[in-house]
Q: What sequence folds into this?
C-alpha cells in the first residue's frame, strides 16, 4: 500500500459519490429519510466529506478545517453546496496525501481515535472502509427512492 494508492482510491470513490448525488431525481429527495433508514443521502454526503476533511485534512494536512459533526447529521445545504463539498474534499485529498510519504504510513496516526494506537496506514484502511460503507448506503437510498 502506498499513499498514491490511497489517494487514487479516495478520489475514485469521491467521484462515485458525486455520480450518486447527480443521479438523485430531485434535490428534495436527497433529504428524505426512507423508512427504516436513519440518515438521508444529503447528511451521509456531509458526513463522508466532514470525516475525511477532519481526519486527513485537519489532522494530517493541517488545513485548519473545523468539523461540525452534529451538522453533518442534522443540517441541510443546497445541492450545489454538496457538490462543492465533494470537490473541496477531493482537493484536500490531493494536497494532504501529497505531503504524506509511504514511510509515514508505518508511523502511528497522531490521534488514538479508538483509544489505542494504530499506524497511519491502518487508520487510512479504516477511513476507506467507513467511506465505502456509507457510499453503499447512499446508493441503496437512491435506488429505494427511484
A:
Amino acid at each position: 500500500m502506498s499513499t498514491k494508492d490511497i489517494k487514487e482510491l479516495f478520489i475514485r470513490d469521491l467521484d462515485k459519490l458525486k455520480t450518486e448525488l447527480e443521479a438523485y431525481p430531485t434535490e428534495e429527495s436527497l433529504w428524505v429519510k426512507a423508512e427504516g433508514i436513519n440518515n438521508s443521502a444529503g447528511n451521509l454526503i456531509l458526513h463522508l466529506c466532514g470525516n475525511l476533511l477532519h481526519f486527513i485534512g485537519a489532522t494530517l494536512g493541517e488545513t485548519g478545517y473545523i468539523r461540525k459533526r452534529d451538522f453533518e447529521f442534522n443540517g441541510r445545504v443546497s445541492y450545489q453546496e454538496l457538490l462543492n463539498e465533494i470537490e473541496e474534499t477531493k482537493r484536500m485529498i490531493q494536497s494532504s496525501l501529497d505531503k504524506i510519504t509511504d514511510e509515514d504510513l508505518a508511523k502511528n496516526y497522531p490521534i488514538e481515535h479508538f483509544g489505542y494506537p494504530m499506524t497511519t496506514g491502518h487508520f487510512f484502511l479504516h477511513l476507506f472502509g467507513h467511506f465505502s460503507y456509507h457510499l453503499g448506503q447512499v446508493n441503496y437510498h437512491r435506488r429505494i427512492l427511484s
